[in-house]
TrEMBL record:
Role played: Converts 2-succinyl-6-hydroxy-2,4-cyclohexadiene-1-carboxylate (SHCHC) to 2-succinylbenzoate (OSB).
Location of the Mandelate racemase/muconate lactonizing enzyme C-terminal domain: 143-235
Lineage: Bacteria, Bacillati, Bacillota, Bacilli, Bacillales
Protein name: o-succinylbenzoate synthase
EC supergroup of this enzyme: lyase
Cofactor: a divalent metal cation
Amino acid sequence: MKVEKIVLRKMKMKLKSPFQTSFGTEQERDFVLTEVYGDGEIGYGECVVSTAPLYSEETAGTAWHILEDFLIPMVFEQGTFGHPDEVGKLFAPIRRNHMAKSALEGAFWDLYAKRQNLSLAKALGGTKKRIEVGISIGIEEDINKLFRTVEHYLEQGYRRIKIKIKPGKDVQVLRALRDRFGDIPMMADANSAYTLNDLLLLKELDDLDLMMIEQPLAHDDIIDHAALQKQLKTPICLDESIHSYEDARKAIEWGSARIINIKIGRVGGLSEAKRIHDLCRDNGIPVWCGGMLESGIGRAHNIAITSLPNFKLPGDTAGSSRYWTEDIIRPEVEVSPDGMIEIPTTPGIGYQPVPEMLDKYTVAKKEFAKR
Ligand SMILES: O=C(O)CCC(=O)C1=CC=C[C@@H](O)[C@@H]1C(=O)O
Ligand SMILES: [Mg+2]
């Protein structure tokens, strides 16, 4: 692949409804899209930052700076690439900034798959034709509204309900959902809202037959999660704690989690996500694909990685209409009545970004070519 041009777009898209977690509420998504032009094709990637640095240290502003001032010049310095795996290796000297790296690396994977006339799923080694999907529901103050929301998504066929929790909005809410809906597949995501001092409360969660408790403790912890997992029968799933293959290896060795949520942006790209998938497969740790309230481009990348065989649990890749009045891709991502998404078989990400839609939500755009 010879890189001819790279385009960055700063995007602003309003979510259909606010999304509340234990660390804040998002109503509007400020993120970055990447376009890599080469050999007559365009590869697309998404930088899955949050508007404020509350999930991780990255924002659209930090990512744009790292892309413009470091990663894009490094790409033009190398000029040509045989395989997308080379992109992550090229970026290795740059510390962290994983979502910025992933946005560009993902566009290379899309471009590579298109040039190989392969779907991105196939190019990644995916084996599935359809994927199971779940739904992530933000913290809801009104329990009856939460009941209606859960009812709505169960009727739509979603195969797992993820409930965001925080102190004061946890055991009672989950117990009420159990009383109302019985033994539906349900999990909780705490986004690091608890500490080991909350052990008695976390033990109450242990009696609710949850599929898993996602990231109960600190966002950068592996040791305390290992201590907690020994006290709980419910599997702990790590999200924010796992930034790399090495983090996953240490978490597995320490017994910090029995499940891992893989987010392509959080770990720095599809090549690293594949490595973590393979490590977990070899250690009997099932994984699923987490979401970052992506547009259709990021959603397409999530669908492709979820086609790998050890993605054994429903992920957060819901349909476009869950988040957007209109998505920037065609077709939009649809979920079948039995809670599945068909893996595209066309080359690359399999969904076509629509230029007019991209322009409609672009608040800043810049083109880069080799000087
Ligand atoms: O994209 C989705 O539907 C999942 C959204 C979601 O649960 C999250 C998005 C971003 C950060 C967190 O709030 C949370 C997560 O931790 O998975
Ligand atoms: Mg999470």
